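Example (one chain per record):
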Amino acid sequence: MSSVLWAPASAAFETSNLARFALRNGVDPHDYDTLHRWSVADPGPFWRGVWDFTEVVGDPGQRSFERSDAAPMTGSSFFPDASVNLAENLLRGAMDSIAVVETDESGHFRTITRSELRRLVARTAAGLRAAGIGKGDCVGGILPNRVEALVALLATLSIGAIWSSCSPDFGVSAIVDRLGQISAKVLFVAPRYRYAGKEHDIAERLVEITAAMPTVRTLVLTGAGRLTPKNGVETVNFEDFGSEAALSFERVPFSHPAYVLYTSGTTGAPKAIVHSGGGVLLQHLKEHVLHGDVRPGDVMSWYTNTAWMMYHWLISGLACGAAVLLYDGAPVLKTAGGLDPSPLWKMAEKAGVTHFGTSPKYLSTLAGENYSPAQLHDLSSLRWLLSAGAPVSPNQFDWVYDHVKRDMIFASISGGTEIIGCFMLGSPIHAVRRGELTAKGLGLAVGVMDERNAPLIGRQGDLVCTEPFPSMPLTFWGEGGRERYHATYFAARPEIWTHGDVAEMTVHGSAVIHGRSDTTLKPGGVRIGIAEIYAACETFAEIEDCLVFGVSVEGDEEIVLCVKLGDGLTLTPELAVQLRRRIRADASPRHVPHRIHAVQAIPYTLNGKRVEGAARLTVEGKPVRNMASLADPACLDEYRSLDRSKAA
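Predicted structure:
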């Protein structure tokens, strides 16, 4: 049985937003199972209840849900008569309240009120209209995580246009493969940005990108730096774009496109996933207000770039009356004295962050540096620590409560770009159990199934969702998008969403994520996840990072573990023995790697996810289809020469 690391006080069952929502709808807050069953069995009243409870601005119409008998997942619709604008909801709230805290790695810190943010958005929206942008047109951003990116996004949404963004550290091919799909007419770009203490000038890269995207007519430049695009594209500084104007909002149907987000793209061209404004709004309000207990005056942060879905998830906190902290730069800085993990915590302390979002990799770095935020910072405002992007190991749960704060909720959350939200997440009325994701999201019929489509409890299987929900994608952008969307998520089980995660539901209603289905290992024909191997490796101070994947050999599959060791350390036979012994004890004999290699670097996507599949293809001598999706493609070179006979 998993151990309880935190439990809610009795008052949470009366005063938390989730408890108040349950009581308003006639459900005892202590009976979450009943609340969840109602939320998926009767989606119309449930989602209308969310709309009313969170006081969405807009007209919901008469119908909250229309089910399709022929295609209950892909043919059903939510709020088909509604009229709403996502930006209008993000920009509501007390005009004198803080909306944005802008920070960066140099220590820059400024606050922006809702009134000032609305003024900036109104001016930029006027500029977009003058540039010929209207409802349904696409606007792109190649921007760091600063206020200009947020203003451009909100201005785009306010006029009913569609927003899509990339981080400025993406290469030419990576950006063209993404923004080039959607025929963007205006691009907001930063010719220069700063990261890890270095200034990066990408003006030439932006010229190449613009030349490869003939639909672009206007470049809006933010920050320092200049560029001269080809093909007669107009350039204008952000400060000079638009004119003072009254803020107005183009209300659109609930299912009108708002965002285009992209998959990692390591197995082909990145899929351009189209999300609706209404679906994003309701899903995020439910997750923030009910599951995260976000309230007016709270301050939310998440270390993210402008391309990742967590950026879009974070800024939806504005609709709850919270402020959002935008951090630009590296989370850990290199100094003459070693690594400095303090920047995010200094900003959290100064801004009074209540909800701090991070990743398992960052937590592992803190532990490796013996950095204890609890001892070094005033975290009295912090109520929630959240983590996404990969499974959190049980040991990291222990570290969080020992070194960050004991009296807080730690929520490992899991969902994805595909749903721009969470299948499993936290809750103010649930206990936090070691190594487990706390609860199934309300309104999401989440489960785990085997290959026969039988539900599983206590055993690994495929993470699925069996009922429709508002933030399902509208389609994939481009020709044949609907067919490609269906083939990706519904081919394995018609009209059942198969997410691509290997998971396990517990008797508590919580879950454990074991990894992606496409990284599942099958040594001896037995299916096992890789999260347990990563968790065991994280207990070794000698290991800075690692990668696990399978390689075909003589009709079977052997497990390969690549480890990046600390400076000056070598992979000794003794360390290899200790690793295998720990993996055997913490996971199972089947998890023990057949080969262990020391490597110089671990490959990641541009969005910061390990790419086991790319390493496997490289070791097997096969091509990786989209190298542009990797943050450092050159790091795969050493994987081509990994010698099985020289493995530990």
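Caption: The chain has 20 helices and 36 strands.
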